[in-house]
Amino acid sequence: MDGLLCYCRAGFEPELAGELSDRAAEAGFAGYARTERDSGHVVYACEDADGLSRALPWASLIFARQKLRLLADLRGLDPRDRIAPMLGALQGRARFGTLVMEHPDSDAAKPLAGLARSLGNALRPALRKAGLLSAQDDARLPRLHVCFVSGDHALLAASDPADSAPWPLGIPRLRMHADAPSRSALKLEEALLVLLDEGERRRLLRDGMRAADLGAAPGGWTWVLTRHGLRVQSIDNGPLRQHVLDTGLVEHLRADGFSWQPAQALDWMVCDMVEQPRRVAERMATWLREGWCRHAIFNLKLPMKKRWQETRLCLDLFAAQAGEPLAIRAKQLYHDREEITVFATR
Fold first, then answer.
1. CATH (one of 1.10.1240.10, 3.30.70.20, 3.40.50.620, 3.40.50.150) for 184-345
2. CA 22, CA 19: separation in Å to the nearest integer?
3. Residue 3 gets which letter from DSSP?
4. Residue 216 to residues 118, 269, 305: CA-CA distances in angstroms?
5. Mapping DSSP to helix (H, G, I), strand (E, B) and coil, where does residue 130 land?
6. pLDDT, tens digit (0-9, with 9 covering 90-100), for 285-318
7. Is the peptide bond before 104 cis (omega within 30 degrees of 0)?
8. Contacts of 143 by beta carbon, 8 Å cutoff, 6+ apart
9. Is the pTM of this model over 0.70?
10. Which overall architecture, per CATH, does domain 3-170 show?
11. Active site (catalytic) residues
């Protein structure tokens, strides 16, 4: 089968399938999505998978944690020898630089972690002997992914290091810091890691920059910004954790995040308020249109139904109302739940 293999949050397969289907059709590629609810992955079958992959960069996909080029769909694998069919399916392929053994991030697939790990130890030398894997990990070459869907079913896929997530399963492993005021801090940490590249993080997050955090309490996102040296106006009628205020970088203003506006232009605005996504999109657009900030990261809480359609509507609404050309990137992050995270810069 030719096509793409994409990983997603379990339960969001219909949203990812809808996104891939719509985006492929708009780019002029015929194909179809195949998935099961709560499987944590979607296969998009397409005759010109290489062309489709180029048309749909990983960074542009919202519900895909990872984007891979599907190479083989191996079913009915014999537990006594899973390696021979894999070598056979890869015969004639160019050499890979790294082997990644994984499974979808779903309840059904998590018990396969041990199998993937142990088989990887045997598969690596077999691949090297066959000339299919470099003697040492080589980050310049495509990565080979072996994704176990079940004990006798594996998907073989490849990733371009320049057009895919660098983390297994597309999930950056972040640890909850002891001083973080709330788990929501992980959402902003992941957003800065996934939605900005290394150069942008150095350039756009510098000591002394000024930011606003709308709906800040108890201070998780404010805390992350202060760790980058930003001075933050934290807008919320609720209280902030005292150690966040003790940084000396935070001014807590008890006000409504939907009506407050800064006295002068800021570098950043971040927002994780629980509100209807269209209302949030419109307010965020106002901030960019009026020049109140240069860069923004905000969350859009999605409804229970038609989430892909609502996502498109809200992002189109935001872009239209912002009133000037913006770079806009959006992802459903690992630490997101029923929401997506958006980065926008003027």
1. 3.40.50.150
2. 5
3. E
4. 45, 11, 28
5. coil
6. 999 999 999 999 999 999 999 999 999 999 999 9
7. no
8. 96, 97, 98, 99, 100, 158, 159, 161, 164
9. yes
10. 2-Layer Sandwich (3.30)
11. 301
